Amino acid sequence: MSTLYIIRGLPGSGKSTLAKKIVGESNRHCESDNFFIKNGQYKFDVTKLEDAHKWCLEKVKHLMTSSKLDVAVSNTFTRQWEYQPYIDFARKLGWNIQIVECNGKWNNVHDVPPQTIDNMKRRWEPSKDIEASINAEGYLTTFILAKYNIVITKYTTDEELFQKAEIIDNCSKQEGVSLWGTLDFLESLRNNQKG
Description:
It is a single chain. The chain has 7 helices and 7 strands. The chain is an alpha/beta fold. The radius of gyration is 18 Å and the shape is globular.
């Protein structure tokens, strides 16, 4: 079954990078910022922000109805109502939905002013759809576990867990991403299997 990845986070949190890791360097990824790219130049216009979000939603709908390949949409989505139309459309089509919250602290490529980012932080609403929501590091760790065939079971020892965490950290560097808390994530994964 196809999956719609809804990737949310503040500017500079790694949303676009993660989306490209999930669906590849393809046209299966959309974000409202793309609306403002004309002739290869990014020119933001706050008066057209609503148009940009409408454009993004329509593009995602087109991608989802024209193929069964996974699609990723990445925007700040500080409030649930901002990404709810994507959830509603995906449910209508019977698609899986994966909400991913990015929390990296990179330089934002569009030079969003610190005051604007602070305002976004104050508006931030945690995902209510908890069962469909994971953080970006958990997603990337899961992606690497599957890609490199690394298995964690309830019988994995602490020593094996430590070794696998090192392998995952090395694999993540090959994937061009940085992960934090890998060992904690793996311990949680193992412990959930023991219950």
